[in-house]
TrEMBL record:
InterPro entries in UniProt: Kinase-like_dom_sf (IPR011009), Pkinase_fungal (IPR040976), Tyr_kinase_AS (IPR008266)
Residues in Fungal-type protein kinase domain copies: 155-564
Record-given protein name: Fungal-type protein kinase domain-containing protein
One Pfam family cited in the UniProt record for this chain: Pkinase_fungal
Gene3D superfamilies attached to this UniProt entry: Transferase(Phosphotransferase) domain 1
Highest taxon above the source species: Eukaryota
GO function term, MF aspect, one: protein kinase activity
């Protein structure tokens, strides 16, 4: 079917949406105004004074530039004017500052390109459900200026324009964030999601005849003092010149532990894979070499090379910013899944949680290596604290970059080749969840991005799928520890050396827990959503402690993931098999897609709860019998009955596993 979306596994379609309403809430208490550290980071005062003086004099002598200045002043004074009228004049001034050479012959490395007339995307395969928000200008490499792409990954920074000074970000009333603050934070999250491994986002804000610079990271936003463009034209020159010419890629937010392979290096890497008869996917995509940083491992054993495009990315600014990618070890060529995410300084890292697991289970991903990421050549951890040179990294106010490598390699649930494969994968992961719960480890973030199908064509029973991403897990049980005791003599006189003793230590604070209630909203248990909604409505009044996240809440999340995956599988896999001439099926597919977006496209507790009531989330299989078999329809009906009595009889592993077993027997 021609209108079907492309394969999302080749791009970023599996993202978690974050609405501007949610961003507004997250911004509260996380904005720093008039922060001198912003200009210090930009190196504004390090711009060569001779260059600034020359630029100011040439600007005053150029009639076209003076005309542009007068037009901008007129627009700022006219309340009826829109920012679009400012674009050509600002573009002319940007180009003047960028292209002017300094005494060493240097000109801009990146340039401000108007981007308001194009839809910036992360990947073409994700354009069917991807936010279309874009800034007025964005910075791209100078060599791309004449023919810019529409990819966020090619943007180094951005500029938002408003026509009037009243649109300045700082409010005199000090109440909720103004529109420009929320709007630019939205751009920053798209920039940091669309440009892999971006640590923070630098944006220039122009409002009428005033401007400031914002630096957006995982802990919030810092704004420089506001200046008048014409009264402080020297500062404006310095800011534009810093962003476009003087700042290094790392100073603009690139991760120093990641290197983009050159064309020659990429070709050599692909040739090595070919020589080892390993598949090479998406040869035209950028390839990144990733490490954990630090001082201890600079060999190929500590380097990992990405494969194609990410299989999961979270579109969040102040959340974890999760990025999941298939990678190969540069030395061994071992295949792994790399998870790149930020965790609260007050929480235990994911690597530590994986290492608490006793034994292995085919339904749980296995840990290879991982750690908090450090700046190369140092022992300094990359965190919002170290990036800002302020505060303590282990504070709840700051976020720490963590990278973990796990195996086996999986596929997205909704890429299942059949209903049977999907249900078997869900069952295997739920069994893995039960295995963890028996060790007092509660996952607390069951979502479509954290359950994977096996990549094997014929996996053994119980290994058809697996659970991953233990970052938000809580461990509340005994910790098993092993110690080696001194040599001992047995009653027979035998000397035993290196005797290992296993013992348990009960520690209710085994992991730093963070929030009592966690998870991805779209898959969160209804009662947790109701508790969140109550707290939103009673923000100013005490409503008691938040509801504790329990085992049966996780099990309910498995069910929402199953429903999501069943629906999305039809949209992204089976849709290609629908003949355009079959008007009935085309219409049914369109209706299913609309229903899917309605059920899972909401991003607030109230919006999601509105789609969880009555028969809404369960009747999709009855409305679309063309796409779902009778065993699947009966499975959803069984789970619906369990859902309706969940308050009296909370979900259990046994009950849901029994329903999945019954469906598997009928589908086999």
């Amino acid at each position: 079917m021609s209108a079907a979306p492309k394969d999302p596994d080749l791009g970023y379609a599996a993202h978690t949406k974050s609405s501007r309403g949610a961003i507004e809430v997250e911004l509260s208490g996380n904005i720093e105004w008039d922060d001198p550290s912003v200009f210090a980071h930009l190196g504004v005062h390090d711009v060569d004074a001779d260059f600034v003086n020359a630029a100011r004099m040439l600007f005053a002598q150029d009639t076209k530039l003076q005309s542009a200045k007068l037009e901008l002043i007129r627009i700022a004074a006219d309340s009826s004017k829109q920012e679009t009228a400012m674009y050509p004049h600002l573009g002319l001034i940007f180009a003047f500052i960028e292209l002017l050479q300094d005494k060493y012959g240097n000109s801009a490395r990146v340039r401000f390109s108007q981007s308001s007339n194009m839809r910036l995307i992360i990947e073409t395969s994700d354009s069917w459900d991807y936010p279309s928000n874009k800034p007025d200008f964005s910075t791209i490499l100078a060599e791309l200026f004449e023919s810019p792409t529409n990819r966020w990954r090619d943007r180094r920074g951005w500029c938002e324009v408003k026509a009037h000074a009243s649109d300045r970000p700082k409010s005199d009333r000090g109440t909720r964030p103004k529109e420009i603050v929320v709007q630019t934070a939205d751009y920053a999250r798209l920039h940091m999601s669309g440009r892999p491994f971006q640590l923070f986002s630098v944006g220039l804000l122009i409002y009428g005849d005033e401007f400031c610079v914002g630096i957006y990271d995982r802990a919030g936003v810092r704004y420089s003092p506001s200046h008048n463009i014409w009264k402080d034209f020297d500062i404006f020159i310095r800011v534009v010149r810093s962003i476009t010419t003087d700042m290094t890629p790392e100073e603009l937010g690139e991760d120093p532990t990641v290197v983009t392979l050159t064309d020659a290096s990429r070709d050599m890497w692909f040739a090595r894979l070919d020589a080892n008869r390993l598949p090479v996917e998406e040869r035209d995509e950028p390839v990144y070499e990733v490490s954990l940083g630090g001082t201890t491992d600079d060999t190929d054993d500590g380097l990992w090379v990405t494969i194609g495009t990410p299989i999961w990315i979270s579109l969040s600014l102040f959340g974890r910013g999760t990025l999941v990618w298939r990678v190969r070890n540069k030395a061994t060529l071992d295949l792994r899944v790399m998870k790149n995410a930020w965790h609260s300084g007050a929480r235990t890292s994911e690597s530590e949680i994986y290492q608490l697991i006793e034994g292995q289970h085919p339904g749980v991903a296995r840990f290879d290596v991982g750690a908090d990421v450090k700046f190369p050549g140092t022992e300094l951890i990359i965190s919002t604290s170290s990036l800002r040179s302020s505060g303590r990294a282990n504070s709840a106010k700051h976020a720490i970059l963590h990278r973990v490598f796990i195996y086996p390699i999986g596929r997205s649930l909704y890429r299942a080749r059949s209903e049977l494969e999907l249900v078997k994968g869900m069952r295997a992961a739920l069994r893995g969840h039960e295995f963890l719960c028996n060790q007092y480890i509660l996952h607390r973030d069951i979502s479509v991005g954290n359950i994977m199908l096996s990549s094997e064509d014929d996996p053994p029973e119980g290994a058809e799928g697996f659970l991953m991403d233990l970052e938000l897990a809580r461990c509340s049980g005994p910790r098993v520890e092993y110690t080696v005791i001194a040599p001992v003599r047995t009653p027979t006189g035998q000397i035993l050396n290196d005797v290992q003793v296993r013992h348990s230590r009960w520690d209710t604070h085994l992991t730093k827990r963070g929030a009592p209630m966690t998870g991805t909203l779209q898959f969160m248990a209804v009662v947790l959503l109701e508790s969140l909604e109550e707290r939103v409505w009673n923000e100013q009044n005490a409503v008691g402690p938040p509801m504790e996240h329990k085992v049966h809440h996780d099990i309910e999340s498995f069910i929402w993931v199953l429903i999501y995956s069943l629906m999305r599988r039809i949209i992204v896999v089976e849709a290609s098999k629908v003949n355009d001439a079959d008007k009935h099926l085309v219409g049914q597919l369109t209706t299913l897609k609309t229903r899917f977006i309605r059920y899972f496209g909401r991003s607030t507790p109230s919006g999601i709860l509105g789609q969880r009531g009555g028969a809404k989330p369960w009747n999709f299989v009855q409305y679309h019998p063309e796409f779902f078999s009778e065993p699947i329809r009966d499975l959803i009906d069984n789970l619906d009955r369990q859902f309706r009595v969940r308050k009296e009889e909370p979900f259990t592993h046994a009950a849901v596993l029994g329903a999945l077993d019954a469906a598997i027997r009928r589908l086999s």
